[in-house]
Amino acid sequence: MSSDLLATSAETWRDGPDKEPLPPVLTRMWEMGGKPLDERILGLRERYLVRQQRARDYFASTRSPKRGLPVAPSSAVVTFVRDLLATRRGLFVGLVVGNVLAGVSGLLVPKLLGNLVDSASNGGEVSQFDRIALVVAGIVVLQAVATFVARRVSVVFGQGVLASARERIVRFVLALPLSRIESSSSGDLVTRVTRDVQTMSGAARDALPAFILEGVLILLSFVAIIINSPLLALPTLASMCLLVFVVRWYLRRATKGYVTEGGTYSWINSTITETVEGARTIEALQLETLRQHHTDDDLGVSGQAERYTLTLRNLLFTTLDYAFQGPLIGIVLLGTWGYGHGLVTLGQITAAALYSQQMYGPIDHMIQILDRLQMALASTTRLLGIAQVPPDRVTGDELPEGDKLLGDDLYFAYREGRDVLHGVTLDLTPGERLAIVGPSGSGKSTLGRLLAGINAPRAGSVTVGGVEATRLPLPVLRTEVALVTQEHHVFVGSLHDNIVLAREDSDSGAVREALGAVGATDWIDRLPEGLGTIVGSGHYQLTPAQAQQVALARLVIADPHTLVLDEATSLIDPRTARTLEGSMHALLTGRTVVAIAHRLHTAHDADRIAVVIDGRIAELGSHHELLDLDGEYAALWRAWTT
Amino acid sequence: MMIDFPPRLRARTDLPTTDLRSPARFLLWLMRIQPGLIALGSLSGLVWFLPPALAPYAVGRAIDRGILAGDVGSTVLWCVALFVAIGIGTTTGILWHTLVVRTWLVTLYGTMELVVAKVAELGHVLPRRTPTGEVLSVSSGDSDVFGAVLEVTERTIAAFGAFVLLVWLMISTSPKLGLIVLISSPFLVASSFFLLRPLHQAQEVERKRSSELTGRVTDIVAGLRILRGIGGEETFGTNYATQSQLTRQAGVATGTWQAGVQALSVLFAGMLLVVLTWQGVHEMAAGRLTIGQLVSFFGYAVFLLWPIQTFFECVQRWATGLVSARKAVMLLSLRAPWLEPEHPAEIVDGDLVDPVSGLTVRQGRLTALVSALPDDTAALADRLGRYLPRSEAPPADVSSDEFKGRAAKRERAKRMAERAAIAARDAEVAHGPWGVTLAGTDLSAFRISDVRRHIAVCETSAMLFAGSLQRNVDPRGTATRDEAEEALRTACAEDVYDALPDGWQGEVEERGRGLSGGQRQRIALARALLAEPPVMLLVEPTSAVDAHTEARIAARVAERRRGRTTLVTTASPLWLRHADEIALVVDGMVAVTGTHEELLAGSSAYRDVVARGMETTPLAEVMSDV
Predict the structure, then answer these.
(1) Confidence of residue B624 (pLDDT cuts 50, 70, 90)
(2) I need a labelling partner for B182 at 20 to 30 A (CA). Which of A308, A350, A559, B551 fits?
(3) Same domain for B449 and B589?
(4) Exposed/middle/buried for B169, CB within 10 Å: 0-12, 13-18, 19+?
(5) Cβ separation of A152 and B463 shorter than 8 Å?
């Protein structure tokens, strides 16, 4: 391998200790002990601002990931939600009406109780008290029934929205471009379909209906307060104005704060998971102290994120406390004046006091809902981002003629200006066995991917039966050429579903035939429910050998004329290999095979061997021809055998 | 100075030692490490809750004395009192919230620190004692439960104070109304209890279906290469949608019960208010109650629900807390089986000898260990490095899905006994002489840390950790750039450097995800080489690497380790050619030794093993006879 691969080593190497995980201004907080008060308050503010900046930076970094899948703009979420709601107009109307009913009856109660107080203080009839009380009790029952109906409708609505949303997301995942899946690790995608779906679910299921519910209630409360007495409504309205400002201030920061806080816990957990799973490696390398410091660092960073949201909450709670208890003072003061001037009754004062206290719950809840909706917005943009990966191919409607696979003058680069293949030409004869060998980094796996139509070459062409491989629709391509990698996966589903992949309309006869071809008939008959048995993680467990037979049967169903096998990742597990030789044999018979070989003996028996060095085919020929050539392959062969 | 978060428990000597005698004692210990925080937190909670409890009283007084009497001075006086009370409440609210978050995080982070320290102490023994899932659930789930237990405890202390005060206020104002509120409140809180059982059952069904649904989607992602490569998008997309609809139905069922719970609480709270007002106006008519006092009662009734809810919550949290504490105690009570020798021997370099298998790894030489079964040679390397033999995973803890009630208890006792038996066997093996000697001294005579420093066993699939490439190759940050480059070249891993966008600072994802198996293996090899252990035992170091690269690595490692003790387990001729001495292992015993040439010529057993490795790669088998 050429040594210039390390050319940038001097620039990227860093001597000395690692960068501290936290800036000094944050770690200095432990030394503020004996300082004068003004200095401590200034320090508090300074740290608050630094934490705020850190939250902003982190949030920004989650919005434009360096690696992984794109993130959709917020406008995409609006369209997405509108589409979901459009099919549920009836439920939506029911939701609003139900909540208005529950809200109105709930607001009538304090008003009527106020009336009761009025009539009592005016020395009304005792029998009249009982009648009013009975009416109020009736309204309370009505309120309870309306509450039940409204909540139930909101559950049906929320669960429906959620189910549609997640089903669409999964469709997006299932439509990801093939080359994208092959080239990147699945970590980002796993996070999105688990954690982001979870955040979105909470919002779609609870927060969205609750937003409508509490929104209706708050609006109605304002109406009721004003109807009760415009004068006594003033303190509540004034404090709500103040609240709007603070809540806006809070919400602008809260999402970033909580996303950052959540991020720090993911770090902590993934560091601890690594420490637990790598316990032996850590012991062998004596990294125990280092790993503990690593967790300490993570906890320190997390602690700072917690302190930021703590400050935000303290400021919010303080305002909330004043905003909800303060109006009581105003109501009493205005009430005294108004009562003296005959403008308000005692009943109105009582009702106003009750209303102002009743609003605490819905508004407090509303702030939490807005918070969750913002978080869900962030998650949903990441989920919709899955659909924004640009397609990797434009398919045509030409169909291949014949089984010939030809790679002509292929160039390919993962990064611009860095070709890993430099004009490779391979002409495959139908039915031949070609082995590709070469050192790691030489481009042999890349060549395999181009031949299988996973990636399109930068220049040159791969044709299958005369048609450009990446112009073929995937369902057609799959029945022509198949790349065999990591095929041990058994899906959760019936055995039948696990096999028919390439031709989903295959009947059970075809499945049995495919399983028979790979020699798997004996054990499928012993399965509890035959082909209908649910297999996969958490269900009926297949042995590794059975799983591999399933993988082979999938290929038999696909029936491509050419197979590209990558020995590094392919289905051949040495532990089960011996029992599977027959099955493999059945699969490969009559097909063209391109084997990216790690082991020399895999290459040895091939019809032709291509030695790939530095992105070029250095040698091409049968085993004996290459030995006669006395080049790279011959040298390696001799090292191997003598 | 009160303890703050993160608590850095390891660095502190002023705290009582961890009490693992019982789950309850462990929870109490978590409180004992922060007595000041707990006391001040509870106190500030009480002060915070007094104003909202007293506010109705002030409003009632203002109505009676001020509004009705037309006494503006009196109104203002009570309003000022109200304002002061709100001010005090709000200020202590900040203090309460700050302190309780501190308690929660001291507990949460402290538990995580304890878990990580325990993992570091146990090392490779950990997976022999407990499944990794249980360890992680203590650090990420149970630790949070402990935070919640301490929080609710403080809140309960505060709530109790507020409760006593309110009861006194109510009874002294109107014994009749006071009793109505006092008796009905617990019923109000408990009113929905009879709905809780069907609700919990519905939630359980929803939880199961929803975790199955998450399982389905992760399953789809895990097999996405196949689904997009071979097909099946329609089948599994539809399967997911079916499960999604099942989950939706379960969610609607749960939500319906919840709607019932909410409707009931609306009904009962409303009824209490009605009864209170109805009785109140009668009392007023009878002249036993003023209007202001009635208004006060509205406030008391609303507020009293809160302490009662807190009491219920406290009982529930402690119940879950004790379950979590049991798991934490179980984990933290584990001990590594090693006994430190009383007079540890000094390590001197020399031959590594295992009389049981008859293997001698000579000082300063490259020895190769060959076997038809790679697991046999790996086990032998473990033994040479003083690692306990690999074993079956210990039984998992009993989950609520499998067993209930007494059956769960019995089953748990059985499994814990099984775990204890494994630990006892390990202790027996670890306490006696090990059987392997270094320069004539048994390994048990050395400190275990000295053995680890001197003899490095490099597994075939050693872990990489999230972080820069530089930190993966040189975790301690002690190497120079030249040394690191050299290690990377020896392990033929320059292409990994090249593949990462920022070279040495390029980020390796957790567990080396995103790199191929061969790339991970070569980075791990570079890391092991850079540590320069005096004795290096390499287990199948190039099993995931192609023949070209393997040939280079074998030559370079042999060159670099020249003069230092190195053992490699492999059946690849590309390595065997470089070995000074080769031992063929059959059934765990050394059958024959010699150089590659000698053994090829003289041992048919050796020829069989090596030739099999050479000729029957499974793919080769198929390629040759189709």
Answers:
(1) low
(2) A350
(3) yes
(4) middle
(5) no
For A310, how many CA atoms within 13 A lie in the half-sphere containing its CB?
24
Cβ(B455)–Cβ(B535) below 8 Å: yes
Q: The domain that contains A139 carries what CATH number?
A: 1.20.1560.10
Q: Which residues contact A493 (CB under 8 A, 6 or more apart)?
A: A534, A535, A536, B235, B236, B239
Can you give the pTM of this predicted structure? 0.89
Instruction: Give per-residue pLDDT as tens, A464-499.
Output: 999 999 999 999 999 999 988 655 789 999 999 999
Same structural domain, A376 and A425: no
The answer to whether residues B466 and B612 belong to one domain is yes
Q: What is the ipTM of this complex?
A: 0.91
The verdict on residue B140 lying in a domain is yes
CA A617 to chain centre: 41
CA dist B168 and B158 (Å) reads 16
pLDDT tens-digit series, residues B437-480: 999 999 999 999 999 999 999 998 889 999 999 999 999 999 99
For range B501-517, the mean pLDDT? 87
Among A388, A421, A456, where does a domain finish?
Answer: A388
Residues B122 and B197 in one domain: no
- In B234-358, where do the E strands start and end? 352-354
Answer yes or no: do A368 and A427 share one domain: no
Interface of B with A in 2-41 (CB under 8 A): 4-6, 8, 10
- Asked if residue A366 and residue A455 are part of one domain, the reply reads no
Average pLDDT of chain A, as a whole number: 88
Interface of B with A in 470-489 (CB under 8 A): 470-471, 475-477, 480-481, 484-485, 488-489
B356: in domain: no
Q: What CA–CA distance (Å, rounded) separates B96 from B93?
A: 5
Inter-chain residue contact A332 with B302, CB threshold 8 Å? no
Contact yes or no for A106 and B266 at CB 8 A: yes
Alpha helices in A68-125 (DSSP H): 74-86, 89-121
Same domain, yes or no, for B574 and B493?
A: yes
A13 falls within a domain: no
Q: Do A478 and B122 touch (CB under 8 A)?
A: no
Domain that holds residue B89: 7-174+305-336
Residues B131 and B249 reside in one and the same domain? no
Residue B326 belongs to a domain: yes
Whether residue A447 is found in the same domain as residue A535: yes
